[in-house]
From TrEMBL, chain A:
Stretches with biased composition (Basic and acidic residues): 156-165
UniProt region (Disordered), positions on chain: 145-165
Protein name per Swiss-Prot or TrEMBL: Skp1-related protein
Organism: Pristionchus pacificus
Entry's family note: Belongs to the SKP1 family.
Record-level Gene Ontology MF annotations: cullin family protein binding
Known role: Probable essential component of SCF (SKP1-CUL1-F-box protein) E3 ubiquitin-protein ligase complexes, which mediate the ubiquitination and subsequent proteasomal degradation of target proteins. Regulates cell proliferation during embryonic and larval development.
Pfam families: Skp1, Skp1_POZ
GO terms classed as biological process: protein ubiquitination; SCF-dependent proteasomal ubiquitin-dependent protein catabolic process
UniProt keyword terms in alphabetical order: Ubl conjugation pathway
From TrEMBL, chain B:
UniProt source species: Pristionchus pacificus
Lineage: Eukaryota, Metazoa, Ecdysozoa, Nematoda, Chromadorea
PROSITE patterns, alphabetized: FBOX
Record's protein name: F-box domain-containing protein
The organism's place on the tree of life at top rank: Eukaryota
Length: 165, 392
């Protein structure tokens, strides 16, 4: 089993199965560019730095990839099927502890950076689910966003929205 | 520490908003002054944080945003936009190229249009950033007005908008009295025709190409072949004038995706499929009509008379042309029923360069429910004015 080492922004090393990394477009490209798949190359000696991903987030990403090992990798954009996407129970449970916090968002940003399409889709879906049926102030409260609007501004936005309601 | 929700990359926020409907997006606008929430393809709003985006984009932070009355630009962040007008001028930033700009913008406020005045180089940078944000938003119209760099702008637009379903391309110009001024933008047959082809092979329903100078007969021929190539019902609706030497002066083309017999009328608008100017006479002879005179092709003639040239069935389908490529088909199409889908589309053009990004189907949600109360101002649409041919 070939292991490839990922290095997070806080210098933590994560040896990961080569097979798992096929889910990440970014890492896959790096592996190809660094010839890590060549038999002559000592992959273990060439860690892949991921300066945009913190260790704790990378750990979660790897955990997710391990669970989804063998899943078909999403090719390109498939926007038309957004409505049909359902977050599986395992993933729901996976995201839930981090929900309404920066961890989930960091995971989402990492998924985008690492180009892990399935993770990104499910993560975005899970985030969007938290917005559904909520008012702006409710979303603010849940996500801990300070209210930057004066009542007048808020009213103005509502008024501007009227035309499309 | 800033809340990450407010600092999500626009692309990520876009992906999240893909799962939301209009009302949910609108609620997101109330979350924060950050406008990322406005970037949603589903609501088909081109609601970008133009101000911040532009500042990031433009060299030296120079920015000229005009939104109606000057000074209102400050409120842009709290404004949902359904259309962005990129007003690219050849003049210096901030200088008004067209005296009508502000009055037009005032009228356009119902559409929540934002105009950003950019130099061409800035336009390119701007569009590079805007492009991913426009993902999924239907680009309805590209408007460009005549100036020496027109074609360059169109080239750029096509590069950025490749693959999109552009439903309308206007290459027009307004003179100071706001009347359509036929514009010379012709730059040789090759590229122009290829550009038209690209648009046609997408789902372009309408193409307006006013041109002061006649298209060459070869171009007309190319267009005709092209229409056959795309293998769809399409009409080249030409308001044409033929001068005394029977050169073809092409006025306005309209290419309709699904015109049917019922919408074909014979009146002042002529549908001309010309392989050769000489065929005009030839066709007339075949139809048993007296020889055409230049006067017959003059618009004034059409307005005062209702004369059909050619026969109705031969006009109905362009595939007829395969059997009789030399035939002249002259007629017109009642376009009024086809204007409806474009009611949120571009309305006006003014000097300089303009690109309208139109949230094309604002009145329709995913399930087809009408949700908007925005009203079209017919007076703003030069196309609608020109397209209303009275039926016989």
């Amino acid at each position: 089993m070939v292991l490839i080492t990922l290095v997070s922004s806080d210098e933590q090393n994560f040896p990961v199965e080569r097979e798992l990394l096929k889910q990440s477009g970014t890492i896959e490209t790096l592996i190809v560019n660094m010839n890590l798949d060549d038999e002559d190359t000592d992959a273990a000696a060439m860690p892949i730095p991921l300066p945009n991903v913190k260790g704790d987030v990378l750990e979660k990403v790897i955990q997710w990839m391990e669970h989804h090992k063998g899943d078909p990798v999403k090719e390109g954009d498939n926007e038309d099927n957004n409505a049909e996407i359902v977050v599986p129970q395992w993933d729901d449970d996976f995201f839930k502890p981090a929900m309404y916090g920066s961890k989930h968002l960091e995971l989402t940003v990492a998924a985008s950076y690492l180009d892990i399409k399935n993770l990104l889709t499910l993560s975005c879906k899970a985030i969007s689910n938290t917005f559904k049926g909520k008012t702006g102030p409710q979303i603010r409260e849940e996500w801990g966003v300070p209210n930057e609007f004066t009542p007048e501004e808020e009213e103005a936005i509502r008024k501007e929205n009227e035309w499309s309601e | 520490m800033p809340n990450l929700l407010l600092n999500l990359p626009p692309k990520t926020f876009h992906q999240i908003s893909d799962f939301l409907d209009e009302n949910e997006i609108l609620q997101l606008r109330l979350v924060s002054k950050m406008a990322n929430a406005n970037v949603s393809r589903l609501v088909r709003y081109c609601s970008l944080t133009i101000k911040e985006l532009s500042i990031r984009t433009l060299a030296n932070g120079v920015l000229a945003i005009k939104f109606g009355v000057e000074g209102e630009a400050l409120n842009l962040r709290s404004l949902i936009l359904c259309r962005i007008t990129l007003f690219c001028s050849l003049s210096e930033i901030g200088e008004n190229v067209d005296e009508n700009l502000f009055s037009l913008l005032e009228e356009d406020r119902g559409y929540k249009t934002l105009s950003v005045q950019l130099m061409s180089a800035q336009m390119e940078r701007f569009m590079t950033i805007v492009k991913p944000l426009l993902k999924g938003i239907k680009i309805d119209t590209i408007n460009s007005v005549g100036c020496e760099c027109d074609l360059e702008l169109i080239r750029m637009c096509m590069k950025f908008l490749e693959g999109r379903e552009i439903t309308r391309l206007n290459l027009v110009k307004l003179n100071k009295s706001k009347k359509i001024e036929i514009t010379e933008i012709y730059d040789g047959p090759g590229e122009y025709i290829s550009m038209i082809k690209k648009i046609l092979t997408a789902k372009c329903e309408r193409l307006n190409i006013p041109d002061q100078r006649p298209f060459s007969l070869r171009d007309i021929e190319n267009l005709c072949q092209l229409l056959n190539c795309v293998n769809k019902k399409a009409y080249l609706d030409v308001s044409a004038e033929i001068n005394t030497s029977f050169d073809v002066h092409v006025g306005v083309y309209r290419i309709l995706g699904d015109a049917d017999d019922g919408n074909v009328v014979f009146s002042r608008r002529f549908l001309c499929i010309l392989g050769d100017a000489g065929d005009i006479l030839h066709s007339c002879a075949r139809d048993g009509r007296s020889a055409l005179t230049p006067a017959l092709f003059h618009l004034q003639f059409g307005e005062s008379s209702s004369v059909s040239l050619g026969n109705r069935t031969s006009i109905a389908h362009l595939d007829h042309q395969k059997e009789d490529p030399g035939r002249i088909l002259i007629g017109s199409s009642d376009l009024r029923s086809r204007m409806a889908p474009h009611k949120k589309a571009a309305s006006q053009n003014f000097g300089g360069w303009i690109i309208h990004f139109v949230a094309q189907d604002l009145s329709t949600t995913r399930d087809g429910q009408s949700t908007t109360k925005a009203k079209k101002k017919p007076s703003l649409d030069p196309l609608s004015r020109r397209s209303q041919s009275p039926p016989l």
